[in-house]
Design goal:
The chain has about 350 residues and is of the alpha/beta class. Helices cover about 45% and strands about 15% of the residues. It has 2 domains: about 5-170, HUPs (Rossmann fold, 3-Layer(aba) Sandwich); about 180-345, P-loop containing nucleotide triphosphate hydrolases (Rossmann fold), CATH 3.40.50.300. The protein has helices at about 20-30, 50-60, 70-80, 95-110, 125-135, 155-160, 170-175, 190-200, 210-215, 225-240, 255-265, 270-275, 300-320, 330-345, and strands at about 5-10, 30-40, 65-70, 115-120, 140-145, 180-185, 205, 250, 285, 325. Helix 11 (about 255-265) packs antiparallel against helix 12.
Length: about 350
C-alpha cells in the first residue's frame, strides 16, 4: 500500500522543466493530499527567467500550488505579508543556507511545514532532517528514481540544445523553444505565399495572419479594441501551432503589423499592443515590394504599400531589430530564408 502524506514538497530549478522533473512531481502528487512545488535559482541561466519557468509549471501542472521565486517576487510577497524582506541565496551557497531558506519560505510565505520532501538526489535525507529541525516535527524523505532508470536526463544537455531534446520535454515546454520566424511586408508583397512555401520546404507549420481573417469577419469595420484582440489572438495561435511545429515555426506577420494598422486607423496604440509588438523573434524577414501590385478588392492603392514598407524599415531600425530583406521570385526568397535561418538556429 502506498504511504499517504498530508503535505509534501518538491524543490527544483526547472531550467528547463523536463520529463524527469515531471516524473518526480507526479510521483509526489500521487502520495500527497497537498503538494507544494517550489522553484528558485540565482543567478540561474540566461533565458530561464522566473516568468518563463512559472509558465511551464502552470501549463503542465495547473492544479498544483507552484511557486517560482526570485528576489523581486520575494520582495513583493514579503511586503504583502508585512514581514522583513529576505534575498534568495546564490546557487553556490552551502546546502544549509538553502535548507534554512526553504524552511523560512514554508513557515512565513507558503502556509507552514510539510511532512515529506520528494527528491531524486542523495541530498534528500539531509534536506528532510534540516526541515524537521526547523519545524520541530517529523519530515520524511522519499527518493524517486535516483538511479535515473526510468528517465536518463541531463539538464545541462537539454540546455545545450533543447530542440534536439523533444523526447524529454513536455509538448508545451518544447514548443516554447521552437524558434519563431517572422515574416513582414506590405500588402501584395508575397508574404502569405512565402509563409506557406517556407513551411512546406522545412516540413513544419505556419501561423496565418489573423488580422485579415478578423477584418473579413467584421466586414472591414474594426474598432480600437480590436487591435489588441487581433495581436493577442495572433500570439495565441503561435503558441497553438508551435505544439505541432518542427524545428521552426513560420509566422505570417507579428503584432508589429497590428501596431502599424492601429496607428494608421486610430492614430493611437494601446499599451498592451505596444508590449506585444516588442515580442522577440529568432529571425525577421521583410518581403520586398518588388512583386507587381495585385488589387484583390480588399487592398488599398500601391502608394499605401510603399508607405507600409517605409514604416516597417523605420520601426525595425528604431527597435534595433536585425532583419533581412527578401527579394526576387518565390524560390529565391525561400532559399535565402532557409540559409539565414539555419545560420542562426543550427
Amino acid at each position: 500500500m502506498i504511504e499517504r502524506f498530508r503535505r509534501g514538497l518538491v524543490v527544483g530549478k526547472f531550467c528547463p522543466l523536463h520529463l524527469g522533473h515531471e516524473l518526480l512531481i507526479n510521483h509526489a502528487r500521487s502520495q500527497c493530499d497537498n503538494l507544494i512545488v517550489l522553484s528558485y535559482t540565482k543567478p540561474g541561466f540566461d533565458g530561464y527567467d522566473r516568468e518563463r519557468r512559472a509558465g511551464w509549471l502552470h501549463t503542465r501542472f495547473p492544479d498544483l500550488a507552484c511557486h517560482v521565486i526570485d528576489d523581486d517576487e520575494l520582495a513583493r510577497r514579503c511586503k504583502a505579508r508585512g514581514i522583513e524582506r529576505r534575498l534568495v541565496p546564490n546557487d553556490g551557497a552551502p546546502d544549509d543556507v538553502h535548507r534554512q531558506f526553504v524552511a523560512w519560505l514554508l513557515l512565513n510565505l507558503l502556509g507552514g511545514p510539510v511532512d515529506v520532501v520528494f527528491t531524486s538526489e542523495s541530498y534528500g535525507d539531509g534536506f528532510a532532517a534540516a526541515l524537521a529541525e526547523a519545524f520541530d516535527s517529523s519530515v520524511r524523505h522519499v527518493c524517486v528514481d535516483e538511479a535515473r532508470s526510468a528517465l536518463s536526463i541531463s539538464g545541462t544537455q537539454v540546455r545545450r540544445n533543447p530542440l534536439a531534446c523533444r523526447h524529454v520535454l513536455g509538448p508545451e515546454v518544447f514548443a516554447d523553444f521552437v524558434p519563431r520566424i517572422a515574416l513582414l511586408g506590405g500588402e501584395s508583397t508575397g508574404k502569405s505565399t512565402l509563409a506557406r512555401a517556407l513551411a512546406e520546404a522545412r516540413e513544419t507549420v505556419y501561423v496565418p495572419e489573423f488580422g485579415r481573417e478578423h477584418w473579413e469577419h467584421r466586414g472591414g469595420l474594426l474598432s480600437f479594441d480590436d487591435m489588441v484582440y487581433i495581436a493577442r489572438t495572433q500570439v495565441e495561435r503561435e503558441q497553438q501551432q508551435a505544439l505541432m511545429a518542427g524545428r521552426w515555426l513560420i509566422c505570417d506577420t507579428t503584432p508589429l503589423t497590428t501596431q502599424l494598422y492601429s496607428e494608421l486607423l486610430f492614430g493611437s496604440v494601446a499599451d498592451a499592443l505596444a508590449n506585444l509588438a516588442r515580442r522577440p523573434y529568432a529571425n525577421t524577414f521583410l518581403c520586398a515590394a518588388d512583386f507587381p501590385f495585385v488589387q484583390d478588392g480588399t487592398r488599398q492603392e500601391e502608394e499605401f504599400r510603399r508607405r507600409q514598407q517605409t514604416w516597417y524599415q523605420d520601426a525595425l531600425q528604431q527597435r534595433q531589430i536585425h532583419f533581412e530583406l527578401l527579394e526576387g521570385p518565390l524560390s529565391r526568397r525561400v532559399d535565402t530564408a532557409v540559409r539565414l535561418i539555419r545560420d542562426v538556429t543550427s
